[in-house]
Amino acid sequence: MIYAHINSSNNTTELSDINTQSHYKGSSTIYQVAEDFDLNSYEFDIIKRILRCRHKGSWLQDLQKTKDTIDLYIKEQQDKFGK
Questions:
Q1: DSSP states along the chain
Q2: Residue 55: closest CA among 26, 34, 18, 29
Q3: By C-alpha distance, which of 57, 50, 45 is closest to 21?
Q4: 68 with 75: CB under 8 angstroms?
Q5: Distance separating the N- and C-terminal Cα atoms of the chain
Q6: pTM of the predicted structure, to 2 decimals
Q7: 73: CB partners within 8 A, 6+ apart
Q8: What is the pLDDT of residues 9-52, one digit of tens each?
């Protein structure tokens, strides 16, 4: 996976390869996707779990946690986003 790092000595952005878990795939980071789509923390967590569940080795557990997060998101944000 490729990450961008800010070099503090000259304040430039550098791309580098970093060893990451095998369940993190793709040409862009999940963080960049979240920023591009202006995701809140609930949406970010839900999408992250769905994207990696088949690759992480705990498919059912990740999907159950995703359901719990969706239920919490609905409960806590329903008044904000509508019914």
A1: -EEEEEETTTTEEEEEE----TT--SSS-HHHHHHHTT--HHHHHHHHHHHHHHHHS-HHHHHHHHHHHHHHHHHHHHHHH--
A2: 26
A3: 57
A4: no
A5: 38
A6: 0.62
A7: 42, 43, 46
A8: 665 555 555 555 554 555 578 889 899 999 999 999 999 999 88
